[in-house]
Structures are given as C-alpha cells and as structure tokens.
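Q: What changes when D-glutamic acid is included in the input?
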Amino acid sequence: MPNIPKILIFDSGVGGLSVFKEIKALLPHLDYTYLFDNKAYPYGELPQSILISRVENLIQRMVQLQSIDLVVIACNTASTIVLPRLRQILTVPVVGVVPAIKPASNLSHKAVGLIATPATIKREYTHHLIHNFSPDKPVELLGSTRLVNMAEDKLCGNPVDINELKQILSPLIDKVDVAVLGCTHFPLLKKEIAEAFDNKVMLVDSGEAIARRVKSLLADVSEKSSVGREQYDIYCSAALGDKAALNYYIDKLGFSPIEPLPFLDA
Ligand code: DGL
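A: The predicted holo structure follows.
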C-alpha cells in the first residue's frame, strides 16, 4: 500500500471538526489525527504567551509521535498569532485558518460582520486583513465566547437557544448583509445562526478554502489509488465529563472514541 499522508488537525475544542469535515470531503483517502487542547479552552480568553507556548509544545510533540505530514491549525484564535513560530520550528507544512474577510467583502453590498472570539477581533493580524481586503466595506466586529460554548454544547447533545443566539447577534442584525464565521466553532451552528438572522445574511467561512489549500500542498497524492485508515485518532488534553454524545457525533465522522493525550504532562 502506498504511504498515506497523515494530517494533524488542531483546535482548542470541537470547532476544528468543521474544518476536518471540509478537508475529508475533498480528500477522503488520507489519514487524520484530531487533537484538541480542552485543558486551555477557551483560547479566545487565553493570554497570548500561554497560547503560543501550548500550541508550540503540543503540535511539535504530536508531529514527532505520529510522523505527521501536514498540520492544520483549525483555529482562528491560534492561527492569527502562532503560524510564524510553528513554521519556524516544524519541517512539515502548516496550514492556518484565518477569517475569510476577502470573499465576504467581495460578496457584500452593504457591510460585513466578523463574528469571532474576543481575542481574534483584537488581533493585529485581523485588523491587517480588514485593512487590506475590505477597503470599501465597513467591517463590524462581534467577539463572543458564549457562541463558542454554544457550539461545544450542541455537539455534547444540548439544544441551541435561538433567542439567546438572536440576542448575541443583535448588534449585527439589519446592519450587515454578509457575516464571516471567524471561529471554526461557528460553522457547527450555521443553520441556527442563519435562522437568528432570519436567513437574510450570507454566512462565509474558511473551511472549503482550507481544504483546497491542503489538497494543493499534497498535489502528488493519488486519492484513488490509496485507501485511508478506517478509524482516525482523536485526542484531548484534559479529562472530558460526559463524552457519550460527543463520541456518538465523532463516530459518524470516522473517529474512534476520544483518548487522553499520550504525553501526560501537556
Ligand atoms: N475554534 C477556535 C477559533 O477558531 C477558538 C475557540 C476558543 O477556544 O475560544 O478561534
């Protein structure tokens, strides 16, 4: 059997699964490992220096341990500050997820909303994106950790409260015609977010573009001739409470049950 590239997908929580789904749809025959740093979740509330050192440590060790071929930082909050450092210390390609400001601005006729974590909307990187790629459309910023928690709760089997969602999104309602889902957790709430906007706002995320980028970096991989693993690994950095609903969800995506990180001190 030919060598199947192994892709590491990383986030603070379940958000990166939205990116995994897009990559797997385009590249179904690769091998995947998912790692989430729930010990330090939510990243949107974490001091930058701690975030950078955690991501660096976790990724470097997992890349070594599993002979990873390509890393996807499926987290806007992390990607907007850790990519230069990761690319410095790793020899494998690192793909980051950052808010899709450019396509959103091109689609908008009025104003763009950026829905992200409180950290992402403050990042210099984000403000450069806005400055460079939305020169003629105003970008309204909305940072919310509660929305991130709502996505985690949904995948743990809890219902989403549309009225609460409407209240969180109220600063953008009637103001923007396009909204960027600038946190990988939010595509997991896409249907509910669309409903909260009365289906009047176009929602844009980076998932498909990331999948295309991964594919282009693995251009020499023949998808048809290789067969991927039947079950993928998924690791967390802290013990999870009730895992049943989440394990049920990830089983449908092709993962085996969630395991604690193989390095104990992380
Ligand atoms: N999923 C992450 C992002 O794209 C971060 C969520 C969090 O831990 O605050 O930004």
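Observations recorded in class: The two ends are 34 Å apart (CA to CA).
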